[in-house]
Amino acid sequence: MPFWLCNAPGTFLRCMMAIFHDMIEKTMEVFMDDFSVFSNSFQTCLSHLEKMLKRCEDTNLCLSSEKSHFMVKEGIVLGHKISKNGTEVDKAKVDVITKLPHPTTVKGIRSFLGHASFY
To answer: With 83 labelled, which of 21, 25, 40, 71 sits at a CA distance of 20 to 30 A?
Structure first.
């Protein structure tokens, strides 16, 4: 689905909610075009992951192998680092902002604000 269409993110999210309605908040969370399967134990997480992948297969939902990460203890979700310790700022995004040249033009200020407004 092309995300440049104005209604695409909302439509995609409604589709995800319809497909995974019985799993959301119990075994997985959906965030825009990201979703995460979770559990307190490895074995249970494996079971939840298997159910989610089966549901994807049953509904012909294609996943990107480049963007998929399985059985990790922390990861980047919507530009934030998520771990058992909670939510943190993604250091890579902060590094980009700190390395930007000082803006001296309107275009430079817009560029800086575009990067900085994420947080």
So the answer is: 21
Output the six-digit token pair for 14: 């409604």
Is the backbone of residue 89 left (phi > 0), alpha (psi -120 to 50) or beta? beta
Please give the pLDDT value at position 1. 52
DSSP label at 102?
A: P
Question: Residue 80 pairs with which residues in a beta bridge?
Answer: 77, 89
pTM of the shown model: 0.69
DSSP 73: S
Cα–Cα distance for residue pair 21/47, rounded to 1 Å: 17
Backbone phi, psi, residue 63, to 5°: -110, 150
Q: Which residues of the chain have pLDDT under 50?
A: none
